[in-house]
Specification:
The chain contains 14 helices and no strands. Helix 2 packs parallel to helix 9, helix 5 packs parallel to helix 13 and helix 6 packs antiparallel against helix 7. Keywords: Cell membrane, Endoplasmic reticulum, Golgi apparatus, Ion transport, Membrane, Sodium, Sodium transport, Symport, Transmembrane, Transmembrane helix, Transport.
């Protein structure tokens, strides 16, 4: 029973493994021009489905209350969409002299360019008891920003490695990402009550479609005899990804807990998760568009496929530690504020004088 529960909980991770294994066994089904016709079903229908689904599920009407924390939102968005990719680029200049597969290194750069995820950062912030409203706002707002900024960052840091012209990339992004997202938001307005009542499984729908995209991406890989992925590079990438996550989590913690930062402990929790987590749901479809027809697309996708479960695993392990820090920090702040409140209150002064025997 425990095994079944575990499998039900981690079905998406199991699905990724099965999708890659299925692509290895029979790559001809999911290649371009194959029975699945991924050049149509994946490039247009699957990607549009994911973003229509995102449009339906994004509760933008609840985000207005979080708008007031401008400093917090600026910190998260600048960190995740500017500092993160720029730091990864500098780090990769050092790694370029190592024997690590160059396409996996390019994949690491794509991870840095991705927007925050819609779900994992929010779930972990909620589990700790952090600023959930800020996490929801930055995940949703970051996703909207990512639609425009992520393709620009990919082209800036990786150059013209795509075989598709720049105008074609953005026209396809507009038709398969922006339009379905807007339509999803419009439809949501009319059926909002029904959605709130029924609570459709938006996450499961997007994840299922994503498995199809992953499957067809790896079908292209395994049908290409020129692609060779060495285990040494893969192990090193795994270690690097965990190191990057831990380093950036520590960095955001240090920045947001400085005396003059102005952030509460609950804000720090939202910052740690929202600034360091990256979206697989938005990332894989974008890579599919920006690097359409690229023979090394699947190798470029590998670091993002590793980063996704790594961020959930690492975040889940650190939840108790971060929670105990937040609770103790909040208690300390409360204790320092109480004497100040008493000094400003005549009744409080009286009680303090009685307490100290005056």
């Amino acid at each position: 029973m425990r095994l079944l529960e575990r499998m039900r909980k981690d079905w998406f991770m199991i699905g990724i493994v099965l999708a890659i294994a299925g692509a290895k066994l029979e790559p001809s089904i999911g290649v371009n021009g194959g029975p699945l016709k991924p050049e149509i079903t994946v490039s247009y229908i699957a990607v549009a489905t994911i973003f229509f689904n995102s449009g339906l599920s994004l509760k933008t009407e609840e985000l207005t209350s979080a708008l007031v924390h401008l400093k917090l939102h600026l910190f998260i968005q600048i960190f995740t969409l500017a500092f993160f990719p720029a730091t990864i680029w500098l780090f990769l200049q050092l790694l370029s002299i190592t024997p690590i597969n160059e396409w996996l290194l390019k994949g690491l750069q794509t991870v840095g360019c991705m927007p925050p995820p819609v779900s994992s950062a929010v779930i972990l912030t909620k589990a700790v008891g952090g600023n959930e409203a800020a996490a929801i706002f930055n995940s949703a707002f970051g996703s909207f920003l990512g639609i425009v900024i992520t393709p620009l960052l990919l082209l800036l840091f990786l150059g013209s490695s795509s075989s598709v012209p720049f105008t074609s990339i953005f026209s396809q992004l507009f038709m398969t990402v922006v339009v379905p997202l807007i339509i999803g938001q419009i439809v949501r307005r009319y059926i909002k009550d029904w959605l709130e009542r029924k609570k459709p499984p938006f996450g499961a729908v997007s994840s299922s479609v994503l498995l199809m995209i992953i499957y067809t991406t790896f079908c292209d890989t395994f049908s290409n005899p020129n692609i060779d992925l060495d285990k040494f590079s893969l192990v090193l990438i795994l270690v690097i990804i965990f190191s990057i996550q831990l380093s950036f989590m520590l960095l955001t913690f240090i920045f947001s807990t400085r005396n003059n930062s102005g952030f509460t402990p609950a804000d720090t929790v939202a910052i740690i998760f929202c600034s360091t987590h990256k979206s697989l749901t938005l990332g894989i479809p974008m890579l599919k568009i920006v690097f359409a027809g690229h023979e090394h697309l699947s190798l470029i996708s590998v670091p993002l496929l590793i980063y996704h479960p790594a961020q959930i695993l690492l975040g889940s392990v650190l939840v108790p530690t971060i929670k105990s820090w937040m609770v103790s920090r909040q208690k300390k702040l409360l204790q320092t504020r109480e004497p100040l409140a008493n000094l400003n209150n005549p009744e409080g002064l009286e009680s303090l004088s009685i307490k100290f025997g005056h």
